[in-house]
Structures are given as structure tokens and as C-alpha cells.
Amino acid sequence: MFSRILIANRGEIALRVVRACKEMGIETVCVYSEADRNAMYLKQADYTICIGPGPAQKSYLDISRIVSAAEISDVDAIHPGYGFLSENPHFAEVCESCNIKFIGPTPEASRAVGNKVAARELAKKVRIQTVPGSEGPVKDEKEAVDVAHRIGYPIIIKAAGGGGGRGMRVAHNDVSLVNNFLAAQAEAGAAFKDGTLFIEMNARLQVEHPVTELVTGVDLVKEQIRVAAGEKLRIRQNDVVLNGVAIECRINAENPNNGFKPCSGTITGYYPPGGPGIRLDSHVTAGYAIPPFYDSMIGKLIAHRRTREETLSAMRRALSEFVVEGVPTTIPLHLAIFDHTQYIKGQVDTTFIESYFSK
Fold it and tell me: Where in the chain is CATH 3.30.470.20?
């Protein structure tokens, strides 16, 4: 087993990995940007190293800085979390060349499924059915419109190397497609150094992994670490038994009334929910300043109960307890969604928010 792991990420997922490592008796090294210097979760790590200024391109996406931090701190492995470099095969190769274990797919596997274009081609090669879409990367907005006319609206524009919702847009007509195509392309290029747009398969830990953990009882982060350390997977597919219903709400510092625009700022008041059936994965505290450089997630609130009805009730109660002051959040919208008749009945689709909450 590893003795020390570097976590090449930030926020709630960095804290999530730190907690798993603590329970396994593994030391942790958290890297951080200058914008995250005062984040409270850093105090939970055994060691911390600053890797650069706030912009991700100069810190969390800078492979040389992260690997240098790993070598200086003498770690056995690197956990990339999700987003940033988690699906970057070159990063995995560099780790390998430096005799540092990458806790994730091999470079070959990452190339095969991490890029959405390559994943689609692999699926077709092994005769796995795929949803309608473009046959390869879409080079410009004209080609995007042609594809949309062929497969029909609504369509999703997806960054080939994206993650965490970055570089993804929904379009319902030609005008919104062109506008969203250009916006998604720019966002993907800035966030992932790859503006290629396409559909998806994820080769890393999912943002929504707590849902799986709660209904299966399997700690996915610990299993990742064990497998990367050379241990055999402790469970087989037949051992996985689903128990109850889990639902996750992303609590973001966003203004739903202004196109879900992210809002940086300082959280002046913070009271997290709790109680039976509630899990909160969050790295923030009162006084935490949300940086403008990254996604605006405050935390992930997950409810898990025996039935969907019980889970909805637990989530409503938890959302009503959750207090975040100083920045707008998605909490009021979540409350409205969980009270909506259509959602309660399970009668929702991709137009649900636009249809019922656009005003």
C-alpha cells in the first residue's frame, strides 16, 4: 500500500480524497494555488505545497509544477480527482516516467475512453450501440448545424476532453446552437486546452460518485487507491447490491435568475444540514472566499433513504436547513424543483428547467 499520496486537485474532491487516505493510514500532500491559500481543508492534509497563481492554466493544469511538487514531497502516487488533469493521458505518462503511480486509467485506456471522440469510435468498433450524433469532431458551427438537422433538436454540445459540466451546452434551434457552439468551444479551450466538441464517456471518478457509494455501500475512492497499489478489486459485479434511493444536489454559488451565472465572493454565513440519510461533501466554511478562477461549487448534498418518496422528503428537509449567506446559491431553485408536481412524479426531461423555471 502507498505511504504518501499527492492530491492534484482542489475543493471538495481534494478533501474527499484526504479523508479516505486518513482512514487508510496514508499521508497526504495537497497542492494549492495562491487563490486557495486560505482554504480550511488544507489543514486536514499532512503537507501542502503552493503550485502557482490562481488561474488553473498556471497551477492545477500545469503538469510540470504538479510533478515537481510530487518529487519534492517524495510521494508514491498522485490522485487527480475529477476535472483538471484527471483524464489527461500525457499526465499519466509523465507520472509513470517519474515512477509515481497515477491513481486512474493507464495512458492507453485514458486515450481510448477519456476523449469522447475516441470513445465513440471504440464503442462502434466493438459493436456497442451509440446515441445519434456526429461521426467525429465538429470543426465549426456550420457543420454543427448540419449534424443537428440530421439528428434533430434538442442536442447537446460537449467538449471532447471536458468534464465537470465545462464546455457543455444544450441547443434547441439553429440560433442557440451557433451561439452555444462558439461559447462551448471557447470555454473548453480555456479549461482543458482542447476546444474539440463532441458526446461522452468518463475515465475517472465521477462528481456524482457519492450516489453510487450510498446505494452500494462501496467506497469508490478507497477502491481506486487499493487497485492502483496493486491489490485485487475486492468485489465482483454480483456482490454489488443496490440499497434504497440516493439523490444528489450540486450547491453552486450561481444566480439561477441570471442564466446560472457563477458568483465569486465571500461566504459570510454558513450552516450545513445533517441528520439521518444526509451526506454533505463540502470544503467551505463561513469566511470562505469563492475564487473566480474555477467552478462555483460550494458542495454536494446527497440524500439516501429506502424509497424515492422518503429520499425526496429528506432532501427537502436538508435543503431547508442549509444556510449559505453572502453569495447567491442554487438552494432556492433546488427547493422549488423538489416541490414541483412533475418532478415528484418523475416526469422530467431536458426541457424541465426551461419549461417551468425560465421566468
Answer: 244-357
Whole-angstrom distance, CA of residue 90 vs CA of residue 325: 41
Question: Could you state, in chain order, the average pLDDT of each consecutive group of 10 residues for the chain (359 residues)?
Answer: 98 98 98 97 98 97 98 98 93 97 91 71 79 76 88 80 63 89 77 59 87 97 97 91 97 92 95 97 96 95 98 98 97 96 90 83
Residue 154 in contact with residue 148, Cβ under 8 Å?
Answer: no
Hey, what CATH topology would domain 4-106 get? Rossmann fold (3.40.50)
Question: Any idea which fold 244-357 has?
Answer: D-amino Acid Aminotransferase; Chain A, domain 1 (3.30.470)
Report, as residue numbers or ranges, the catalytic residues: 204
CA distance 206 to 199: 16
Residue in 63, 23, 73 with CA at minimum distance from that of residue 44: 23
Distance CA 19, CA 50 (A): 20
pTM (predicted TM-score): 0.82
Q: Which three cell numbers stand for residue 62?
A: 500545469
Phi, psi (5° rounding) for residue 167? 70, 25
